[in-house]
Amino acid sequence: MSALSALLVRDVRIALRVGGGAMMGVLFFLTVVTLMPFALGPDLALLRRLGPAILWIGALLASLLALDRLFSADHDDGSLDLLLMGRVPIELAVAVKGLAHWLTTGLPLVVAAPILGLFLNLEPKAIAAVVLTLLVGTPALTFIGLVGAGLTVALRRGGLLLPVLVLPLTVPVLIFGVAASNAAVVGPVPFGTPFTILCALTLMSLVIGPFAAGATLRHGLE
Amino acid sequence: MAWIDLANPTRFLRIVDRVLPWLTAATVFAFAYAINGVLGAPDDYQQGATVKIMFIHVPSAWLGMFCWGMMSLSALGTLVFRHPLADVAAKAAAPLGAAFTFLCLVTGALWGRPMWGTYWVWDARLTSVLVMFIMYLGLLALWRTVEDPARAGRAAAILTLVGAVNLPIIKFSVDWWNTLHQGASVVRLGGPTIDPSILIPLLAMTLACTLLFVALHLAAMRNEVLRRRVRTLRLLQAQTARGV
Q: How many domains does chain A have?
């Protein structure tokens, strides 16, 4: 257990220090959301209607952008090999790395969402709904992304392959995240229905992600 | 003959060489029968002659899904049993599955233009097939990025299994998404019941296309085995030329 908490602390610390790039995701999030009104026009009513979707797309892309870093640095300096050879099961180590990654890239997106929601003229109720769905949904994005990150680091190929592999798998999370946010404001279904399904998707990805990513590392780096 | 006997590529090639001509002949006969039936099938009273597109559309859709199921079994063969031909089977199947899924999308679009007045709608079924097509392309891209076939095979196997878990979820969520937004105008292919005069040619066509798939798949597996042999020989040649 102490090995896992040490790993968690180490990963969070690396991400927060110089070169870690933890805040880069938030910056990217801000940029994407700022670009949207330029493309859609400054119509506040339209932005209010599209707001939850814009925030979700921005968060999805931002968390995708950070995935590249998940294993690559550890692979470069050899600590990933140590993790693979260590006594801790690689699935657990991968899960902890995913948690650390979410704390440093996913959670800041959730914290930034209310401010960006103001830019998009969202009413308080909608902002609360988006924040809540992002809080529940971004772990799913990270843990689905673990699989793609594992594949690309094991194959030593990054770049555009990662989003192509990961994005189709995130379709359900996006659908239910946006649906729950919209349901809170306009209905017609109650907020709880899509939201509980979103929770279920997150729980599933928490189980499947580490196992699949562990398998990619084990098979890819042997 | 045990399942494991096929693990020997030479024996596999010999069996394929013996089976493939018969399979090809069976495919040709099945297509002859099916096309004869399709030409004899009456036009739909509403759709007119465009109903004929369905005879290609439905088998393609079936094969697109069937192929992913088969690749998932192959992936288990790669990861669990380490069967040497399992990743050959998966690699040979992926382009075929992508091609049939593409055919399904294109025929659907061609049918949709006169029937719905548009090539594309964001209907649940269309969308989930599109996502599946993108996942096929991702898998092909993964195969193409790694030189070592064994490594690429294991990586692709994991992705295939993750996809197999996800495809039903995507299908379900897309259904939910669509019914939420345009529940009143759910477009549906075909009626609730199909007349035997159309159903029998359709089933014949499905059988013929499946035979075609199996024949193409075996041929592609044979080519893949041969390609890997050529690759190994080239590597050996390069090594000896350098005097290593």
A: 1
